[in-house]
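P.,

For your records, the input lines for the assembly:
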Amino acid sequence: GQQVMQIPQYQHVQEGEDFTTYCNSSTTLSNIQWYKQRPGGHPVFLIQLVKSGEVKKQKRLTFQFGEAKKNSSLHITATQTTDVGTYFCAGGRGTYKYIFGTGTRLKVLA
Amino acid sequence: DARVTQTPRHKVTEMGQEVTMRCQPILGHNTVFWYRQTMMQGLELLAYFRNRAPLDDSGMPKDRFSAEMPDATLATLKIQPSEPRDSAVYFCASGESGPFGETQYFGPGTRLLVL
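Structure tokens returned:
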């Protein structure tokens, strides 16, 4: 079946360091979304990418969608303690079906 | 600030009992998703509704799970009979349809423990 893998599974960084998580799909995606889930919380929508090679920025967060629309990345510049949580990509198949990635759990050490 | 609400937030029950989880989607959203989250399986889509009609429940164990939307303000997920392996966090999300997909707004979840 279709899988969406994320690496790394866990990442510990010192506050101020950069962080990147990568998302890889076994099949071509129609679009990709990114969500953040704080410990004990629920996933919160961050962004959606649709076009091949698309890059979007939100303050310190940079999102990329691969040329083949099978992979994506999220990069955080100069992490802060508020960035702690698990980051999920969700690969879109069609208009509503999203396969969530395995997630990358980020810990930021002050 | 519009939010998806879910009740109950926590549920502890014994194996064999019926469990009903409720979700109130954001007013104006016409799609509802039910997800289950576990450490082992991650986030799995159980069911998807559009305009109250169930369009996809392929991720749901049919023998014990059922999902309905009796009206636009209420979605329910039932498990009967419940089993220990159903222990998980169940999220409801309502969606804003766009040309390229759904932006999903998740509720706080129901944390279910089946003993």
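Two observations worth noting. Chain A touches chain B at residues 30-31, 33, 35, 41-45, 48, 50, 88, 92, 95-103 (CB under 8 Å). The longest strand of chain A covers residues 85-93.

Regards
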